[in-house]
Amino acid sequence: MQQLHSFVDSLLVSSKDDPTKLFSRLLFLFIAPVAALLLIIRWARWKPYPPGPTGLPLIGNMMMMDQLTHRGLARLAKRYGGLFHLKMGFVHMIVVSSPDEARQVLQAQDHIFSNRPATIAISYLTYDRADMAFAHYGPFWRQMRKLCVMRLFSRKRAESWQSVRDETDHIVRAMASRAGSPVNVGEHVFNLTKNVIYRAAFGSSSSEGQEEFIAILQEFSKLFGAFNIADFIPCLWWVDPNGLNSRLVKARAALDRFIDNIIDGHISYKKKKPNGVVKAEEDMVDDLLNFYSGDEMGKVSESDDLQNAIKLTRDNIKAIIMDVMFGGTETVASAIEWAMAELIRSPDDLKRVQKELEDKVGLTRRVDESDLDKLTYFRCCVKETLRLHPPIPLLLHETAQEAVVGGYRIPKQARVMINAFAIGRDPNSWSDPDSFKPCRFLNEGVPDFKGGNFEFIPFGSGRRSCPGMQLGLYALEMCVANLLHSFTWDLPDGMKPSELSMDDIFGLTAPRASRLIAVPTPRLSCPLY
Ligand code: HEM
Protein backbone atom coordinates (compact mmCIF):
# COMPACT_ATOMS: atom_id res chain seq x y z
CA MET A 1 0.00 0.00 0.00
CA GLN A 2 2.86 2.28 1.00
CA GLN A 3 4.47 1.58 -2.36
CA LEU A 4 1.28 2.38 -4.26
CA HIS A 5 0.98 5.70 -2.43
CA SER A 6 4.53 6.70 -3.25
CA PHE A 7 3.99 5.62 -6.89
CA VAL A 8 0.90 7.84 -7.14
CA ASP A 9 2.73 10.73 -5.36
CA SER A 10 5.65 10.48 -7.73
CA LEU A 11 3.29 10.56 -10.72
CA LEU A 12 1.57 13.68 -9.39
CA VAL A 13 4.77 15.43 -8.33
CA SER A 14 6.59 14.81 -11.60
CA SER A 15 3.68 16.39 -13.54
CA LYS A 16 2.96 19.25 -11.14
CA ASP A 17 3.81 22.01 -13.59
CA ASP A 18 2.17 20.47 -16.64
CA PRO A 19 -1.67 20.03 -16.41
CA THR A 20 -1.93 17.93 -19.60
CA LYS A 21 0.65 15.51 -18.31
CA LEU A 22 -1.15 15.35 -14.99
CA PHE A 23 -4.48 14.64 -16.72
CA SER A 24 -3.09 11.89 -18.91
CA ARG A 25 -1.39 10.25 -15.94
CA LEU A 26 -4.59 10.35 -13.90
CA LEU A 27 -6.44 8.89 -16.84
CA PHE A 28 -3.89 6.09 -17.02
CA LEU A 29 -4.34 5.43 -13.32
CA PHE A 30 -8.07 4.84 -13.81
CA ILE A 31 -8.13 3.23 -17.21
CA ALA A 32 -5.41 0.67 -16.64
CA PRO A 33 -7.20 -1.16 -13.79
CA VAL A 34 -10.56 -1.02 -15.60
CA ALA A 35 -9.00 -2.43 -18.78
CA ALA A 36 -7.26 -5.13 -16.75
CA LEU A 37 -10.53 -6.02 -15.04
CA LEU A 38 -12.34 -6.25 -18.37
CA LEU A 39 -9.61 -8.50 -19.73
CA ILE A 40 -9.86 -10.76 -16.69
CA ILE A 41 -13.66 -10.96 -17.04
CA ARG A 42 -13.33 -11.75 -20.71
CA TRP A 43 -10.70 -14.37 -20.02
CA ALA A 44 -12.85 -15.95 -17.31
CA ARG A 45 -15.79 -16.09 -19.73
CA TRP A 46 -13.73 -17.24 -22.69
CA LYS A 47 -14.93 -20.50 -24.10
CA PRO A 48 -13.27 -22.72 -26.68
CA TYR A 49 -14.92 -23.71 -29.96
CA PRO A 50 -16.39 -27.21 -29.93
CA PRO A 51 -13.86 -29.96 -30.71
CA GLY A 52 -13.13 -30.80 -34.33
CA PRO A 53 -10.41 -31.78 -36.76
CA THR A 54 -7.45 -29.40 -36.95
CA GLY A 55 -7.37 -27.38 -40.14
CA LEU A 56 -4.69 -25.76 -42.27
CA PRO A 57 -3.95 -22.01 -42.20
CA LEU A 58 -6.39 -19.96 -44.29
CA ILE A 59 -8.31 -22.85 -45.86
CA GLY A 60 -9.08 -24.55 -42.51
CA ASN A 61 -10.79 -27.91 -43.09
CA MET A 62 -11.63 -27.30 -46.73
CA MET A 63 -9.78 -30.47 -47.71
CA MET A 64 -12.63 -32.33 -45.99
CA MET A 65 -15.28 -30.77 -48.25
CA ASP A 66 -16.31 -34.19 -49.60
CA GLN A 67 -17.29 -35.26 -46.07
CA LEU A 68 -19.96 -32.58 -45.68
CA THR A 69 -22.79 -35.04 -46.38
CA HIS A 70 -25.20 -36.43 -43.78
CA ARG A 71 -23.28 -39.73 -43.73
CA GLY A 72 -19.81 -38.13 -43.73
CA LEU A 73 -20.76 -35.80 -40.89
CA ALA A 74 -22.36 -38.67 -38.94
CA ARG A 75 -19.02 -40.51 -39.17
CA LEU A 76 -17.14 -37.43 -37.94
CA ALA A 77 -19.62 -37.10 -35.04
CA LYS A 78 -18.63 -40.59 -33.86
CA ARG A 79 -15.11 -39.23 -33.48
CA TYR A 80 -15.71 -35.66 -32.25
CA GLY A 81 -19.07 -35.91 -30.48
CA GLY A 82 -22.59 -34.55 -30.79
CA LEU A 83 -21.34 -30.98 -31.29
CA PHE A 84 -18.26 -30.35 -33.38
CA HIS A 85 -16.61 -27.52 -35.23
CA LEU A 86 -15.12 -27.16 -38.70
CA LYS A 87 -13.60 -24.13 -40.33
CA MET A 88 -14.14 -23.87 -44.08
CA GLY A 89 -12.02 -20.96 -45.28
CA PHE A 90 -13.38 -18.03 -43.26
CA VAL A 91 -16.65 -19.77 -42.39
CA HIS A 92 -17.23 -21.44 -39.03
CA MET A 93 -19.39 -24.56 -39.27
CA ILE A 94 -21.00 -26.21 -36.29
CA VAL A 95 -22.44 -29.70 -36.65
CA VAL A 96 -25.13 -30.90 -34.25
CA SER A 97 -25.65 -34.67 -34.16
CA SER A 98 -27.26 -35.47 -30.82
CA PRO A 99 -30.76 -34.79 -29.41
CA ASP A 100 -29.53 -32.78 -26.39
CA GLU A 101 -27.60 -30.29 -28.47
CA ALA A 102 -30.45 -30.17 -31.01
CA ARG A 103 -32.78 -29.13 -28.18
CA GLN A 104 -30.40 -26.29 -27.27
CA VAL A 105 -30.27 -25.04 -30.83
CA LEU A 106 -33.89 -25.58 -31.90
CA GLN A 107 -35.66 -24.79 -28.65
CA ALA A 108 -33.70 -23.33 -25.71
CA GLN A 109 -31.73 -20.80 -27.79
CA ASP A 110 -33.72 -20.82 -31.03
CA HIS A 111 -33.91 -17.00 -31.10
CA ILE A 112 -30.15 -17.07 -31.81
CA PHE A 113 -30.13 -20.07 -34.16
CA SER A 114 -33.08 -19.26 -36.44
CA ASN A 115 -31.31 -17.43 -39.25
CA ARG A 116 -30.55 -19.22 -42.51
CA PRO A 117 -27.16 -19.38 -44.19
CA ALA A 118 -27.15 -18.65 -47.92
CA THR A 119 -24.41 -19.14 -50.46
CA ILE A 120 -23.84 -16.61 -53.23
CA ALA A 121 -25.93 -18.79 -55.57
CA ILE A 122 -28.80 -19.09 -53.12
CA SER A 123 -28.87 -15.34 -52.43
CA TYR A 124 -28.95 -14.59 -56.14
CA LEU A 125 -31.54 -17.21 -57.06
CA THR A 126 -33.88 -16.22 -54.21
CA TYR A 127 -33.78 -12.55 -55.28
CA ASP A 128 -31.63 -11.75 -52.27
CA ARG A 129 -33.65 -13.83 -49.80
CA ALA A 130 -37.01 -12.46 -50.97
CA ASP A 131 -38.59 -15.83 -50.10
CA MET A 132 -39.43 -17.44 -46.77
CA ALA A 133 -37.11 -20.44 -46.60
CA PHE A 134 -33.94 -18.35 -46.89
CA ALA A 135 -35.14 -15.13 -45.23
CA HIS A 136 -33.38 -14.41 -41.96
CA TYR A 137 -35.50 -14.63 -38.84
CA GLY A 138 -37.26 -11.27 -38.30
CA PRO A 139 -40.47 -9.32 -39.12
CA PHE A 140 -40.39 -10.13 -42.87
CA TRP A 141 -39.94 -13.85 -42.27
CA ARG A 142 -42.62 -13.83 -39.54
CA GLN A 143 -45.26 -12.32 -41.84
CA MET A 144 -44.25 -14.56 -44.77
CA ARG A 145 -44.54 -17.57 -42.51
CA LYS A 146 -48.01 -16.46 -41.39
CA LEU A 147 -48.99 -16.06 -45.02
CA CYS A 148 -47.76 -19.58 -45.83
CA VAL A 149 -49.28 -21.29 -42.81
CA MET A 150 -52.63 -19.45 -42.85
CA ARG A 151 -53.11 -19.31 -46.61
CA LEU A 152 -50.81 -21.24 -48.92
CA PHE A 153 -50.37 -24.50 -46.98
CA SER A 154 -53.58 -24.25 -45.00
CA ARG A 155 -56.00 -27.14 -44.83
CA LYS A 156 -58.64 -24.67 -46.02
CA ARG A 157 -56.97 -24.63 -49.43
CA ALA A 158 -59.11 -27.55 -50.61
CA GLU A 159 -57.54 -27.50 -54.08
CA SER A 160 -54.13 -28.74 -52.83
CA TRP A 161 -55.73 -31.63 -50.95
CA GLN A 162 -57.93 -32.46 -53.92
CA SER A 163 -54.91 -32.59 -56.19
CA VAL A 164 -53.30 -35.18 -53.86
CA ARG A 165 -56.40 -37.39 -54.19
CA ASP A 166 -56.54 -36.96 -57.97
CA GLU A 167 -52.86 -37.72 -58.42
CA THR A 168 -53.13 -40.76 -56.14
CA ASP A 169 -55.93 -42.09 -58.34
CA HIS A 170 -53.77 -41.39 -61.35
CA ILE A 171 -50.74 -43.32 -60.03
CA VAL A 172 -52.89 -46.31 -59.02
CA ARG A 173 -54.39 -46.37 -62.53
CA ALA A 174 -50.94 -46.09 -64.11
CA MET A 175 -49.64 -49.02 -62.01
CA ALA A 176 -52.74 -51.11 -62.77
CA SER A 177 -52.21 -50.61 -66.48
CA ARG A 178 -48.70 -52.08 -66.08
CA ALA A 179 -49.80 -54.94 -63.81
CA GLY A 180 -47.42 -57.89 -63.85
CA SER A 181 -44.49 -56.02 -65.38
CA PRO A 182 -41.66 -53.99 -63.83
CA VAL A 183 -42.60 -50.38 -63.13
CA ASN A 184 -40.32 -47.47 -62.31
CA VAL A 185 -42.00 -46.62 -59.00
CA GLY A 186 -39.56 -43.78 -58.24
CA GLU A 187 -40.28 -41.95 -61.49
CA HIS A 188 -44.06 -42.30 -61.10
CA VAL A 189 -43.87 -41.01 -57.55
CA PHE A 190 -41.76 -38.00 -58.51
CA ASN A 191 -44.32 -37.17 -61.22
CA LEU A 192 -47.09 -37.42 -58.65
CA THR A 193 -45.56 -34.92 -56.22
CA LYS A 194 -44.48 -32.61 -59.03
CA ASN A 195 -48.06 -32.55 -60.37
CA VAL A 196 -49.58 -32.01 -56.93
CA ILE A 197 -47.32 -29.06 -56.13
CA TYR A 198 -47.47 -27.59 -59.63
CA ARG A 199 -51.24 -27.65 -59.58
CA ALA A 200 -51.39 -26.21 -56.05
CA ALA A 201 -49.08 -23.40 -57.13
CA PHE A 202 -50.36 -22.55 -60.62
CA GLY A 203 -53.82 -24.10 -60.88
CA SER A 204 -55.01 -27.04 -62.94
CA SER A 205 -55.28 -25.13 -66.19
CA SER A 206 -51.59 -24.39 -66.55
CA SER A 207 -49.94 -27.76 -67.02
CA GLU A 208 -48.61 -26.94 -70.48
CA GLY A 209 -45.39 -25.27 -69.25
CA GLN A 210 -44.55 -28.02 -66.79
CA GLU A 211 -41.57 -29.50 -68.60
CA GLU A 212 -39.94 -26.08 -68.98
CA PHE A 213 -40.51 -25.32 -65.31
CA ILE A 214 -39.03 -28.65 -64.21
CA ALA A 215 -35.92 -27.96 -66.32
CA ILE A 216 -35.56 -24.59 -64.57
CA LEU A 217 -35.94 -26.28 -61.18
CA GLN A 218 -33.30 -28.85 -62.05
CA GLU A 219 -30.80 -26.14 -63.02
CA PHE A 220 -31.59 -24.26 -59.78
CA SER A 221 -31.00 -27.43 -57.82
CA LYS A 222 -27.60 -27.96 -59.46
CA LEU A 223 -26.62 -24.34 -58.84
CA PHE A 224 -27.72 -24.52 -55.19
CA GLY A 225 -25.30 -27.40 -54.66
CA ALA A 226 -22.42 -26.15 -56.85
CA PHE A 227 -19.10 -25.51 -55.13
CA ASN A 228 -18.02 -21.86 -55.20
CA ILE A 229 -14.74 -20.93 -53.52
CA ALA A 230 -16.01 -17.37 -52.91
CA ASP A 231 -18.55 -18.74 -50.42
CA PHE A 232 -15.66 -19.64 -48.15
CA ILE A 233 -12.94 -17.15 -49.09
CA PRO A 234 -14.86 -14.05 -50.26
CA CYS A 235 -11.80 -12.24 -51.66
CA LEU A 236 -11.59 -14.97 -54.33
CA TRP A 237 -14.93 -13.89 -55.88
CA TRP A 238 -13.24 -13.46 -59.25
CA VAL A 239 -12.25 -17.15 -59.47
CA ASP A 240 -15.04 -18.72 -61.53
CA PRO A 241 -13.57 -21.62 -63.53
CA ASN A 242 -16.96 -23.27 -64.17
CA GLY A 243 -18.78 -20.17 -65.38
CA LEU A 244 -21.08 -20.28 -62.36
CA ASN A 245 -21.89 -16.58 -62.50
CA SER A 246 -23.22 -16.64 -66.05
CA ARG A 247 -25.24 -19.81 -65.29
CA LEU A 248 -26.82 -18.01 -62.34
CA VAL A 249 -27.85 -15.06 -64.50
CA LYS A 250 -29.31 -17.36 -67.17
CA ALA A 251 -31.21 -19.52 -64.67
CA ARG A 252 -32.82 -16.58 -62.92
CA ALA A 253 -33.75 -14.94 -66.22
CA ALA A 254 -35.47 -18.19 -67.29
CA LEU A 255 -37.48 -18.25 -64.06
CA ASP A 256 -38.36 -14.56 -64.49
CA ARG A 257 -39.76 -15.21 -67.96
CA PHE A 258 -41.69 -18.26 -66.87
CA ILE A 259 -43.35 -16.95 -63.70
CA ASP A 260 -43.86 -13.40 -65.04
CA ASN A 261 -46.00 -14.97 -67.77
CA ILE A 262 -48.05 -16.86 -65.21
CA ILE A 263 -48.43 -13.83 -62.96
CA ASP A 264 -49.54 -11.66 -65.89
CA GLY A 265 -52.04 -14.33 -66.95
CA HIS A 266 -53.50 -14.42 -63.44
CA ILE A 267 -53.68 -10.61 -63.22
CA SER A 268 -55.49 -10.29 -66.55
CA TYR A 269 -57.92 -13.07 -65.59
CA LYS A 270 -58.68 -11.22 -62.37
CA LYS A 271 -59.24 -7.96 -64.26
CA LYS A 272 -61.68 -9.56 -66.68
CA LYS A 273 -63.90 -10.76 -63.85
CA PRO A 274 -66.46 -8.25 -62.51
CA ASN A 275 -65.44 -6.79 -59.10
CA GLY A 276 -62.14 -8.66 -59.31
CA VAL A 277 -63.91 -11.91 -58.34
CA VAL A 278 -61.52 -14.75 -58.99
CA LYS A 279 -62.18 -18.28 -60.18
CA ALA A 280 -63.70 -20.67 -57.67
CA GLU A 281 -60.51 -22.68 -57.62
CA GLU A 282 -57.85 -20.35 -56.27
CA ASP A 283 -54.23 -21.41 -56.71
CA MET A 284 -51.24 -20.13 -54.75
CA VAL A 285 -50.46 -17.42 -57.30
CA ASP A 286 -54.02 -16.06 -56.88
CA ASP A 287 -53.52 -16.06 -53.14
CA LEU A 288 -50.17 -14.32 -53.36
CA LEU A 289 -51.57 -11.72 -55.75
CA ASN A 290 -53.98 -10.64 -53.02
CA PHE A 291 -50.87 -9.29 -51.29
CA TYR A 292 -49.22 -7.90 -54.43
CA SER A 293 -48.01 -4.31 -54.18
CA GLY A 294 -48.32 -3.62 -57.94
CA ASP A 295 -45.61 -1.19 -58.98
CA GLU A 296 -44.93 -0.11 -55.42
CA MET A 297 -42.11 -1.37 -53.23
CA GLY A 298 -42.96 -4.33 -51.00
CA LYS A 299 -43.46 -3.57 -47.33
CA VAL A 300 -43.82 -5.37 -44.08
CA SER A 301 -44.98 -4.36 -40.62
CA GLU A 302 -45.67 -6.15 -37.34
CA SER A 303 -49.46 -5.62 -37.65
CA ASP A 304 -51.58 -8.62 -36.68
CA ASP A 305 -53.84 -8.06 -39.68
CA LEU A 306 -51.99 -9.97 -42.37
CA GLN A 307 -53.59 -8.08 -45.24
CA ASN A 308 -52.16 -4.80 -43.91
CA ALA A 309 -48.95 -6.28 -42.61
CA ILE A 310 -47.37 -7.38 -45.86
CA LYS A 311 -47.18 -6.18 -49.47
CA LEU A 312 -45.33 -8.45 -51.86
CA THR A 313 -43.22 -7.63 -54.90
CA ARG A 314 -43.01 -9.84 -57.97
CA ASP A 315 -39.66 -11.07 -56.72
CA ASN A 316 -41.28 -12.18 -53.45
CA ILE A 317 -43.95 -14.09 -55.38
CA LYS A 318 -41.41 -15.82 -57.62
CA ALA A 319 -39.18 -16.71 -54.69
CA ILE A 320 -42.05 -18.16 -52.62
CA ILE A 321 -43.18 -20.29 -55.54
CA MET A 322 -39.66 -21.69 -55.73
CA ASP A 323 -39.79 -22.48 -51.98
CA VAL A 324 -42.99 -24.40 -52.49
CA MET A 325 -41.66 -26.33 -55.47
CA PHE A 326 -38.37 -27.18 -53.73
CA GLY A 327 -39.92 -27.78 -50.31
CA GLY A 328 -42.78 -29.94 -51.54
CA THR A 329 -41.60 -32.01 -54.49
CA GLU A 330 -38.44 -33.99 -53.74
CA THR A 331 -39.14 -34.24 -50.00
CA VAL A 332 -42.45 -36.03 -50.41
CA ALA A 333 -41.31 -38.07 -53.44
CA SER A 334 -38.23 -39.40 -51.66
CA ALA A 335 -40.24 -40.28 -48.54
CA ILE A 336 -42.80 -42.25 -50.62
CA GLU A 337 -40.10 -44.09 -52.54
CA TRP A 338 -38.18 -44.96 -49.34
CA ALA A 339 -41.35 -46.21 -47.63
CA MET A 340 -42.13 -48.50 -50.56
CA ALA A 341 -38.53 -49.73 -50.75
CA GLU A 342 -38.25 -50.42 -47.00
CA LEU A 343 -41.53 -52.37 -46.99
CA ILE A 344 -40.69 -54.38 -50.09
CA ARG A 345 -37.37 -55.21 -48.43
CA SER A 346 -39.14 -56.28 -45.25
CA PRO A 347 -41.83 -58.82 -46.35
CA ASP A 348 -43.11 -59.50 -42.81
CA ASP A 349 -43.88 -55.82 -42.23
CA LEU A 350 -45.41 -55.56 -45.70
CA LYS A 351 -47.70 -58.51 -44.93
CA ARG A 352 -48.70 -56.99 -41.60
CA VAL A 353 -49.56 -53.62 -43.17
CA GLN A 354 -51.53 -55.26 -45.96
CA LYS A 355 -53.43 -57.34 -43.44
CA GLU A 356 -54.27 -54.18 -41.51
CA LEU A 357 -55.49 -52.53 -44.73
CA GLU A 358 -57.59 -55.59 -45.55
CA ASP A 359 -59.15 -55.56 -42.05
CA LYS A 360 -59.73 -51.83 -41.71
CA VAL A 361 -60.53 -50.83 -45.28
CA GLY A 362 -61.58 -54.07 -46.98
CA LEU A 363 -60.65 -55.38 -50.40
CA THR A 364 -63.62 -53.86 -52.18
CA ARG A 365 -62.47 -50.24 -52.26
CA ARG A 366 -59.46 -47.92 -52.20
CA VAL A 367 -58.13 -46.16 -49.08
CA ASP A 368 -59.59 -42.75 -48.39
CA GLU A 369 -58.66 -40.01 -45.97
CA SER A 370 -61.04 -41.13 -43.22
CA ASP A 371 -59.26 -44.53 -43.08
CA LEU A 372 -55.83 -43.14 -42.24
CA ASP A 373 -56.47 -42.68 -38.51
CA LYS A 374 -57.37 -46.36 -38.18
CA LEU A 375 -54.14 -47.58 -39.77
CA THR A 376 -51.91 -47.81 -36.68
CA TYR A 377 -49.23 -50.13 -38.04
CA PHE A 378 -49.14 -48.37 -41.38
CA ARG A 379 -48.42 -45.09 -39.56
CA CYS A 380 -45.61 -46.79 -37.62
CA CYS A 381 -44.07 -47.75 -40.99
CA VAL A 382 -44.29 -44.15 -42.20
CA LYS A 383 -42.57 -42.90 -39.04
CA GLU A 384 -39.88 -45.56 -39.25
CA THR A 385 -39.20 -44.52 -42.84
CA LEU A 386 -38.85 -40.87 -41.83
CA ARG A 387 -36.55 -41.84 -38.96
CA LEU A 388 -34.18 -43.78 -41.21
CA HIS A 389 -34.50 -41.50 -44.25
CA PRO A 390 -35.36 -37.93 -43.23
CA PRO A 391 -35.95 -36.29 -46.64
CA ILE A 392 -33.95 -33.21 -45.61
CA PRO A 393 -31.08 -34.86 -43.73
CA LEU A 394 -29.21 -31.67 -42.78
CA LEU A 395 -31.12 -28.70 -41.37
CA LEU A 396 -29.21 -25.53 -42.19
CA HIS A 397 -29.33 -22.67 -39.71
CA GLU A 398 -27.10 -19.69 -38.89
CA THR A 399 -26.38 -17.85 -35.63
CA ALA A 400 -27.55 -14.24 -35.30
CA GLN A 401 -25.09 -13.61 -32.46
CA GLU A 402 -22.46 -15.42 -30.43
CA ALA A 403 -23.82 -18.22 -28.23
CA VAL A 404 -22.64 -20.89 -25.81
CA VAL A 405 -23.80 -24.50 -26.20
CA GLY A 406 -22.59 -27.30 -23.92
CA GLY A 407 -19.84 -25.00 -22.61
CA TYR A 408 -18.52 -24.25 -26.12
CA ARG A 409 -18.44 -20.98 -27.98
CA ILE A 410 -20.50 -20.73 -31.18
CA PRO A 411 -19.49 -17.59 -33.07
CA LYS A 412 -21.86 -15.14 -34.72
CA GLN A 413 -22.81 -16.03 -38.33
CA ALA A 414 -21.66 -19.62 -37.89
CA ARG A 415 -23.32 -22.12 -40.22
CA VAL A 416 -25.09 -24.66 -38.08
CA MET A 417 -25.93 -28.05 -39.58
CA ILE A 418 -28.33 -30.15 -37.56
CA ASN A 419 -27.87 -33.70 -38.75
CA ALA A 420 -31.44 -35.09 -38.58
CA PHE A 421 -30.17 -38.28 -40.22
CA ALA A 422 -27.55 -38.91 -37.49
CA ILE A 423 -30.01 -37.96 -34.74
CA GLY A 424 -32.61 -40.44 -36.04
CA ARG A 425 -29.96 -43.18 -35.82
CA ASP A 426 -28.43 -42.13 -32.51
CA PRO A 427 -27.67 -45.40 -30.62
CA ASN A 428 -28.33 -43.71 -27.26
CA SER A 429 -31.91 -42.93 -28.31
CA TRP A 430 -32.79 -45.89 -30.55
CA SER A 431 -32.11 -49.60 -30.14
CA ASP A 432 -30.75 -51.31 -33.24
CA PRO A 433 -30.84 -47.86 -34.89
CA ASP A 434 -29.96 -48.82 -38.47
CA SER A 435 -32.69 -51.49 -38.83
CA PHE A 436 -36.19 -50.92 -40.19
CA LYS A 437 -38.40 -51.91 -37.23
CA PRO A 438 -41.77 -50.11 -37.41
CA CYS A 439 -43.04 -51.92 -34.29
CA ARG A 440 -40.76 -49.73 -32.14
CA PHE A 441 -43.36 -46.99 -32.65
CA LEU A 442 -46.04 -49.12 -30.98
CA ASN A 443 -44.24 -48.73 -27.64
CA GLU A 444 -45.53 -46.30 -25.04
CA GLY A 445 -43.66 -42.98 -24.85
CA VAL A 446 -41.71 -43.44 -28.09
CA PRO A 447 -40.66 -40.08 -29.64
CA ASP A 448 -42.98 -38.48 -32.17
CA PHE A 449 -42.09 -36.10 -35.00
CA LYS A 450 -44.46 -33.30 -34.05
CA GLY A 451 -41.46 -31.28 -32.85
CA GLY A 452 -41.21 -31.81 -29.07
CA ASN A 453 -38.91 -34.86 -29.21
CA PHE A 454 -35.44 -34.05 -30.40
CA GLU A 455 -34.57 -37.70 -31.08
CA PHE A 456 -36.79 -37.59 -34.17
CA ILE A 457 -36.91 -34.38 -36.22
CA PRO A 458 -37.72 -35.17 -39.89
CA PHE A 459 -39.73 -31.92 -40.10
CA GLY A 460 -37.33 -29.92 -37.90
CA SER A 461 -38.62 -28.27 -34.75
CA GLY A 462 -39.34 -24.77 -33.49
CA ARG A 463 -39.53 -21.55 -35.49
CA ARG A 464 -38.03 -22.83 -38.73
CA SER A 465 -39.77 -26.21 -38.73
CA CYS A 466 -41.62 -27.32 -41.86
CA PRO A 467 -44.78 -25.29 -42.54
CA GLY A 468 -45.88 -27.83 -45.19
CA MET A 469 -45.90 -30.83 -42.84
CA GLN A 470 -49.65 -31.41 -42.97
CA LEU A 471 -49.80 -31.37 -46.76
CA GLY A 472 -46.58 -33.37 -47.06
CA LEU A 473 -47.78 -36.09 -44.68
CA TYR A 474 -51.15 -36.25 -46.37
CA ALA A 475 -49.57 -36.84 -49.78
CA LEU A 476 -47.12 -39.37 -48.32
CA GLU A 477 -49.77 -41.36 -46.47
CA MET A 478 -52.44 -41.29 -49.18
CA CYS A 479 -50.03 -42.41 -51.87
CA VAL A 480 -48.24 -45.18 -49.93
CA ALA A 481 -51.46 -46.53 -48.35
CA ASN A 482 -53.15 -46.78 -51.75
CA LEU A 483 -50.17 -48.38 -53.46
CA LEU A 484 -49.86 -50.98 -50.70
CA HIS A 485 -53.58 -51.64 -50.54
CA SER A 486 -54.17 -51.88 -54.28
CA PHE A 487 -51.25 -54.17 -55.20
CA THR A 488 -48.96 -56.88 -53.98
CA TRP A 489 -45.35 -55.99 -54.77
CA ASP A 490 -42.46 -58.09 -56.03
CA LEU A 491 -38.98 -57.28 -57.22
CA PRO A 492 -38.14 -57.85 -60.92
CA ASP A 493 -36.09 -60.73 -62.32
CA GLY A 494 -36.43 -62.88 -59.20
CA MET A 495 -34.43 -60.40 -57.09
CA LYS A 496 -34.64 -61.24 -53.37
CA PRO A 497 -35.88 -58.48 -51.02
CA SER A 498 -32.56 -58.57 -49.12
CA GLU A 499 -30.74 -57.77 -52.39
CA LEU A 500 -32.49 -54.43 -52.83
CA SER A 501 -29.92 -51.66 -52.61
CA MET A 502 -30.63 -49.01 -49.97
CA ASP A 503 -27.91 -46.52 -51.00
CA ASP A 504 -28.81 -42.86 -51.01
CA ILE A 505 -27.35 -39.77 -52.64
CA PHE A 506 -26.81 -36.41 -51.07
CA GLY A 507 -28.18 -33.07 -52.24
CA LEU A 508 -30.80 -30.77 -50.77
CA THR A 509 -32.65 -34.04 -50.12
CA ALA A 510 -31.36 -37.61 -49.80
CA PRO A 511 -33.30 -39.80 -52.28
CA ARG A 512 -32.47 -43.36 -53.28
CA ALA A 513 -29.34 -43.66 -55.39
CA SER A 514 -31.23 -45.79 -57.93
CA ARG A 515 -34.92 -45.59 -58.73
CA LEU A 516 -37.09 -48.29 -57.20
CA ILE A 517 -38.30 -50.76 -59.84
CA ALA A 518 -41.01 -53.23 -58.73
CA VAL A 519 -43.78 -55.38 -60.14
CA PRO A 520 -47.36 -54.60 -59.02
CA THR A 521 -50.12 -57.21 -59.01
CA PRO A 522 -53.67 -55.96 -58.32
CA ARG A 523 -55.26 -57.36 -55.13
CA LEU A 524 -58.61 -55.52 -54.87
CA SER A 525 -61.92 -56.83 -56.13
CA CYS A 526 -63.02 -53.36 -57.33
CA PRO A 527 -61.84 -52.00 -60.70
CA LEU A 528 -58.66 -49.93 -60.46
CA TYR A 529 -59.18 -48.00 -63.68
C1 HEM B 1 -42.46 -35.40 -46.19
C2 HEM B 1 -42.52 -34.14 -46.49
C3 HEM B 1 -41.67 -33.03 -45.93
C4 HEM B 1 -40.60 -33.08 -45.06
C5 HEM B 1 -39.99 -34.31 -44.40
C6 HEM B 1 -40.15 -31.71 -44.85
C7 HEM B 1 -39.11 -31.35 -44.02
C8 HEM B 1 -38.69 -30.04 -43.81
C9 HEM B 1 -37.58 -29.66 -42.99
C10 HEM B 1 -36.69 -30.63 -42.23
C11 HEM B 1 -37.46 -28.32 -43.03
C12 HEM B 1 -36.37 -27.44 -42.38
C13 HEM B 1 -36.56 -27.28 -40.89
C14 HEM B 1 -35.42 -26.51 -40.26
O1 HEM B 1 -34.62 -25.89 -40.93
O2 HEM B 1 -35.30 -26.56 -39.02
C15 HEM B 1 -38.51 -27.83 -43.90
C16 HEM B 1 -38.72 -26.50 -44.18
C17 HEM B 1 -39.63 -26.06 -45.10
N1 HEM B 1 -40.56 -26.84 -45.76
FE1 HEM B 1 -40.84 -28.82 -45.58
N2 HEM B 1 -40.94 -30.88 -45.60
C18 HEM B 1 -41.88 -31.63 -46.26
C19 HEM B 1 -42.89 -31.18 -47.08
C20 HEM B 1 -43.08 -29.86 -47.41
C21 HEM B 1 -44.13 -29.38 -48.28
C22 HEM B 1 -45.20 -30.26 -48.93
C23 HEM B 1 -43.95 -28.04 -48.40
C24 HEM B 1 -44.73 -27.03 -49.19
C25 HEM B 1 -45.73 -27.26 -49.98
C26 HEM B 1 -42.80 -27.66 -47.58
C27 HEM B 1 -42.30 -26.37 -47.45
C28 HEM B 1 -41.26 -26.02 -46.61
C29 HEM B 1 -40.77 -24.63 -46.47
C30 HEM B 1 -41.27 -23.41 -47.23
C31 HEM B 1 -39.75 -24.67 -45.51
C32 HEM B 1 -38.92 -23.49 -44.99
C33 HEM B 1 -39.49 -22.98 -43.66
C34 HEM B 1 -38.73 -21.80 -43.05
O3 HEM B 1 -37.58 -21.60 -43.38
O4 HEM B 1 -39.30 -21.10 -42.21
N3 HEM B 1 -42.31 -28.79 -47.00
N4 HEM B 1 -39.24 -28.90 -44.36
From TrEMBL:
Its cofactor is heme. Keywords: Heme, Iron, Membrane, Metal-binding, Monooxygenase, Oxidoreductase, Transmembrane, Transmembrane helix. The keyword Membrane applies. This is Ferulate 5-hydroxylase. It is found in: Membrane. GO terms for cellular component: membrane. It is a single-pass membrane protein. InterPro entries: CYP450_84A, Cyt_P450, Cyt_P450_CS, Cyt_P450_E_grp-I, Cyt_P450_sf. The chain crosses the membrane at residues 22-41. One of its GO terms (molecular function) is heme binding. Heme binds at C466. Belongs to the cytochrome P450 family.
